[in-house]
Amino acid sequence: MAAPPDDVLWARGLHYAYDGSPALRGVSFGIREGEVVAVSGPRGSGKTTLLRCLSGQTLPEAGEVWFNSSPVHTLGRAARERLRLHRFGWIDSSPRLVGELTAWENAALPLLLHGTGYRAARKQACAWLDRLDVGGCARKRPAALRQAERQRVAVARALVHSPAVLFADEPTAPLHRTDRAQVLRTLSAAARSHGITVVLATHDLTLTRTARTADETGAALADRVFALADGRRSRVPPAEELQNPARPEGTAACSLSV
Amino acid sequence: MLTLRLTLGAPPLAQLLRLLLVFASAGVGLLLLTALSRAVEHPARPAGALPGLLWCLIPLAVTAHLAAALAEAEPGAPLRSGLDAAGLGPVRLPLLVARTAAIPCAVGGGLALLITVRGQGGADDGAPVVRLPGAAVELPLAQEALPLPAALTLLTAVPLLAALAAARAARTGTAATGATPCGQAPNRRRLTGTAALTAGLVLAAAGLLLAAYAVRHTPETARTGTPRPAELASSPLAAGWLLTALGLVLAGPALTSLAGRLLTAGRPGAVRLLAGRALARESALAGRPLAALGVVGAAALVAVRARLAETELPAPGPAGTLAAALVACCVGGVTLAAMARARHSRAPLAVLLERLGASRGTRRAVAAVRVAVVAAVFATPMLVAGLLAPLPTR
């Protein structure tokens, strides 16, 4: 089956189960180049599993995943690792920084794994840290940083090698609301200005009205919302509920020059 | 019952350590009883048994370390958090851990007692004594009866010390796991800087010098034939060897850390950077056990040299052989536990590297570089100490 010509990443009929308990039950997904899609749904709805299947970390039990008109689900482990290293970026809900490396070394890790030289990697990583307003922490260890700063270093690590697709699995989960909005806006602004496709998983989109309307969930920054419930695609929340000018109090200042 | 269930349901490594602890405790018990029997044999010179008793401190210390390693390994992080939720927090957990460490030691002590009284039907006149079948056991135990209170006092020292060491390790372990942001290993307050390195190396060098001095300046009257093991044990030569071993063990963490820092010198790539920094971080965990393993290797080297060359070194008696085997096995167990802990502390990094898509080759290269550097770092002092350690020549 040929891929839709304008979709950079698409999946059809994904099924996956963890030791018999189903996580994905026939999910189809497509995303165009440069698009920002929010995958929303409560905990346990299969968001993380969907992102893992799309990024080639796990193979779906049934269904197909295509990236740039080439199949991902038939690739071997080494080829999928190469694909992840060169074309994909990943942000977790916790920063997952390497404690013994400094902030810039953490951010430069994908480049160093590519085999980029030490100086070039440092220059690029420090540039990304500057863009994300954590340039002052470049020489600090993660233990000396605040959680929001750590998460921004993780964002820099995911963007530093200019991936084609960025997967963000609840990147704001451990943060307070002010920091959430800041991290999400820097992330989406960076992705848009560099033409990076973003698949963003958020869980609190459908829980409360304030969360639904505020931009702290990331849904307001997304072009499209892909709602999941119990491993299946569910009704997409109406667009007018996502648009609301109300902002949470005390939004932290951040630069959008990314 | 909880102790029993935790004991039975423990992972294989903990069971191995526990088994080792039983045998180590039995061995230390036998060594202590040997020292006691020597004192009983020569009631006129009780000070003559003191060096033997003091030498028992080394197996005793190693056994306590083994108990501490068991305490750090055994309630793993998931079980620990479960116990914490159930009310066995940082205050009561050390008590539980002390109990689980003391029981194997008590079993070992009982085993030692059983070995010594085997073949004798007990005291004839009802006096509280332990009769030792010197012929049945090859250890130089006294043929006459040992005073039971003294034997029991010596044997209870092992479980007590092990329980204390385990409780201390469990307490520091819970304190350290409480504040570990972003998967950092628990940092212990240990001297890992250049001060420790200098102190350790100076001690080792001083030990070697002392041993060389002792070999060269032995009075001629003492050079009449092969010295007995007991004489060697209280000589400055043995003290020099001991000092060298102590210095090497003290320098271990700093040496590992230094090697890690040297590995990341210049402009490292991903492999050197990850391997070097991991080494520097794990030096506090694995430095001392690895250095102790190196010391055991050096001792083995010295023994081989003594066997090959024509030396005045006496063949080690059964007590010496037992002590050496015991220390070597315990150090092996402690090193195994430290390796397991270091591996566990590296688990988040492995997950991250898989997320990022680092190839298997890269991950293997990181592990290989780390192992090679550790081997080089600890083989060098082992070879140097083993080959330079002076031996009394004929």
TrEMBL record, chain A:
Keywords: ATP-binding, Nucleotide-binding. Residues 9-255 form the ABC transporter domain. The keyword Signal does not apply. Coiled coil: none annotated. Residues 234-258 are annotated as: Disordered. GO terms for cellular component: plasma membrane. One of its GO terms (molecular function) is ATP binding. PANTHER family: IMPORT ATP-BINDING PROTEIN, LIPOPROTEIN-RELEASING SYSTEM ATP-BINDING PROTEIN LOLD. Belongs to the ABC transporter superfamily. This is ATP-binding cassette domain-containing protein. It comes from Streptomyces reniochalinae.
From TrEMBL, chain B:
The chain crosses the membrane at residues 20-40, 52-71, 191-215, 238-264, 285-306, 318-339, 365-389. The keyword Transmembrane helix applies. Keywords: Membrane, Transmembrane, Transmembrane helix. This is Uncharacterized protein. It comes from Streptomyces reniochalinae. The lineage of its organism: Bacteria, Bacillati, Actinomycetota, Actinomycetes, Kitasatosporales.
